Amino acid sequence: MELPSETYTCNGFVSDLHIIDTGEVKFLKPAGVVRKVDQLGRIVLPKSLRKRYQMNEGDPVEILVQGDHIILERYRPRCVFCGSINEVSEFKERYLCSECMSDMYQLRRN
Ligand SMILES: [Zn+2]
């Protein structure tokens, strides 16, 4: 799905405004760091960013893409049906949000 993107100024930075599928508006701001990708495709995240975002060794990180952006985010299980990260529970080794679980319950009752 192609998302709308407009250019805005935020805290002195010119940034792209992105509307994420949750309806949340996020400004992308340069972190002031440029790193080279090594021959295996790895990039070292600066310690300051790992500390700021509480990323520790072994923590799962999800890679998201949006247009020509690659976004790293702390991994949170998503609903297998709608992709929501809100009120997600594990059920038979899959994740379901409470809304989809409720929809399934309603289907079963009909
Ligand atoms: Zn769902």
Poorly predicted parts:
1-15
CATH architectural name of the largest domain: Ribbon
Strand order of the largest sheet: 1-2-3
Query: For the report, how would you describe the main beta sheet?
Result: 3 strands, antiparallel
The count of helical stretches stands at 2
Return the CATH class of the largest domain: Mainly Beta
What structural category arises from helix and sheet content? alpha+beta
How many separate domains make up the residues?
A: 3
Keywords: DNA-binding
Pfam family, one: MazE_antitoxin
Domain SpoVT-AbrB: 32-77
Protein name: SpoVT-AbrB domain-containing protein
Task: Briefly summarize what is shown.
The protein is α+β, with helices and mostly antiparallel strands.
Descriptive overview:
InterPro entries: B_subtilis_Trans_State_Reg, SpoVT-AbrB_dom, SpoVT-AbrB_sf. This is SpoVT-AbrB domain-containing protein. 16% of the residues lie in helices and 33% in strands. The strands form three sheets. It has a three-stranded antiparallel β-sheet with strand order 1-2-3, with no helix packed on it. With 110 residues, the protein is α+β, with helices and mostly antiparallel strands. It folds into three domains: 1-30, no CATH class; 37-75, Pemi-like Protein 1, Chain: D (Ribbon); 77-110, no CATH class. It has helices at residues 47-52, 98-109; strands at residues 5-10, 13-19, 25-27, 61-66, 69-74, 88-91, 94-97. Strand 6 and strand 7 form a beta hairpin. The site of zinc ion has 7 residues, from helix 2.
Write the layout of secondary structure elements.
Layout: E1 5-10, E2 13-19, E3 25-27, H1 47-52, E4 61-66, E5 69-74, E6 88-91, E7 94-97, H2 98-109
Antiparallel strand pairs: 1-2, 2-3, 4-5, 6-7
This protein binds zinc ion.
